[in-house]
Amino acid sequence: MKNSKNIIPWSVQKNVKLLKVDKTLGCYFWIKNKKYLDFCSQLVNVNLGFQSPNIINAIIKQTKKISFIGPKFENENREKLADVLTNLYPGNMKKVFFSDSGARANEIACIIAKHYTKKNKILARKITSYHGATRYTASFSGDARRQMINASSNNVIFFSDPIINSCPRGKNYPNCNISKPDTIEKILKRNKSIAAIILEPITGSAGRIIPPKGYYESLRKICDKYNVLLIFDEIMTGFGRTGKWFGANHWSAKPDIVTLAKGITGGIMPLGATLISKKIAKFYENEYFPTGLTNYAHPISCAAAIEAIKTYKKGNLIKKSEKLGNLIEKKLNIMKKKFKCIGDVRGKGLFYAIEFIKNKNGERLINWTYKNYFKESTHMKNLFKFLLDNGMFCYGRYNMIYICPPLIIKKSELERGLNLIERGIEINIENKFF
Ligand code: PLP
Measured in whole angstroms, how far is the alpha carbon of residue 243 from the centre of its chain? Predict the structure, then answer.
């Protein structure tokens, strides 16, 4: 749209060309009668597809009944949703603070961690993490957006992620220089003022990095030893995205605080949730809870979330995500064998990424640097254009393409999408470099 008065996020305004969507339904959107399969669930939030009918009905019903009520009034939706979530999340979650977004949920998680531990620093992943775009959450986000927002802080310390595929050839993790839990222990030994470690159990924007076996269990032990809280940012990994209800279901280690958003309402209403464990909930029995917001636990968002969770359960969508994930894993490994330009394929459930390389030495098609954040490679651009021209919406970052369709996707639709990606890679990347 020309001369729009809207500011578009993360963009040079004059370069933005917005596509006008006429209709959305299920896994698809339509532009001028052309149908597009959404292979990224928009912002990895429309997990139940567009226009999910039960959620829309729940929203209408709640809007007609009580469209708003402040935090100091009782509301059955808030009560019910907190109850459902604390029971659903593995481990020992006792209470929930509902807010309005992922960033806010993380912001609140860190406020709580500092208040509870009476310490003031946050430990986070360098480069391979994103926790939100507010000034505070960007300060503990490793990715380029921290620098962009000019949010660096002395109260944040970073450590490196264990990226297994960057283990030098001929070596195997842990017998290489890649970051291990001991690195974190060394940091905690030196810095007595660290309140919490925050991490995405499987990274989102950073391309589905899964730590090696035992990593989170070691981290859990280290956190307990140094009285540091473990925060899992499950804003992308929650609600079946990775083939289990939550990322934490893949490991025996459980966090002290968890943050949720995106898929919590099937992406239809804004809602964030910060879950706290029994010991932290007990602390607040006699302590003043030091934050709040106008849109606290919005009753319409809570109604949408209750219905969304019912929909995940009714459709057996978590199991389905796991099953379809096996199909993706198989297909991507076949592609990795076929194409020299594929450096790595990673993920679980309906949450995958493919990384591209440009030579036999395994050099990334684009390096993950601050400068490169702003300039998309022509080859990646061509790949995404090819997919769009062929009726599929998909995106990525740097040298990666993401695969994260809605959980309601059919096997045949998933196969069609993967076959299209295979063709797109061959034409736009493999044939250009090898
Ligand atoms: N945490 C993770 C892992 C995310 O992927 C995002 C957003 O993409 C956020 C936090 C921030 O969530 P929001 O955009 O709702 O503030």
Answer: 14
Instruction: Give the per-residue pLDDT at 2.
Output: 66
Residue 65 has phi, psi (to 5 degrees) of: -80, -70
SS3 (DSSP) at 353: strand
User: What is the whole-number distance in angstroms between the Cα of residue 375 and the centre of ligand 1?
Assistant: 22
Q: What is the CATH number that goes with domain 13-51+316-433? A: 3.90.1150.10
Q: Give the pLDDT confidence score for residue 29 in this predicted structure.
A: 98
Which residues fall within 8 angstroms of residue 23, CB to CB, at 6 or more apart? 29, 30
Report strand pairing: 23-25 vs 28-31.
antiparallel
Q: Please report the pLDDT score of residue 348 as a whole number.
A: 98
Q: Where are the domains of the chain?
A: 13-51+316-433, 53-314
For residue 178, the model assigns a pLDDT of 83
Instruction: Determine the number of helices (DSSP H) and then strands (DSSP E) in the chain.
Output: 15, 14
- CA 245 – CA 329 distance, rounded (Å): 19
What the block records as the tokens of 386 is: 């090819």
Distance 101 CA to ligand 1 centre (A): 8
The topology (CATH level 3) of 53-314 is: Aspartate Aminotransferase; domain 2 (3.40.640)
CA of 234 to the centre of ligand 1 (A): 9
Q: CA 123: distance to chain centroid? A: 18
Positions of the chain with pLDDT lower than 50, given as ranges: none
pLDDT digits (tens, 9 = 90+) for 42-97: 999 999 999 999 999 999 999 999 999 999 999 999 999 999 999 999 999 999 99
In this structure, the residue with its CA closest to atom 10 of ligand 1 is 131
- Residues 301 and 66: their CA atoms lie apart, in Å, by 12
Residue 367 · residue 358 · CB < 8 Å? no
Tell me, using a 6 A CB cutoff, whether residue 131 lines ligand 1.
yes
- Determine the Cα angle at 217 with ends 214 and 220, to 5°: 150
Starting at the edge strand found earlier in the chain, the sheet holding 351-356 runs 342-348, 351-356, 400-403
Q: What is the pLDDT of residue 298?
A: 98
Is residue 96 within 6 Å of ligand 1 at its C-beta? Answer: no
| Residue 154 CB-density burial (10 A; 0-12 exposed, 13-18 middle, 19+ buried) | exposed
Closest by Cα among 103, 346, 335, 345 to 203: 346
Element housing 412 (H / E): helix 411-425
The reported pTM is 0.97
318-376 residue pLDDT tens: 999 999 999 999 999 999 999 999 999 999 999 999 999 999 999 999 999 999 998 88
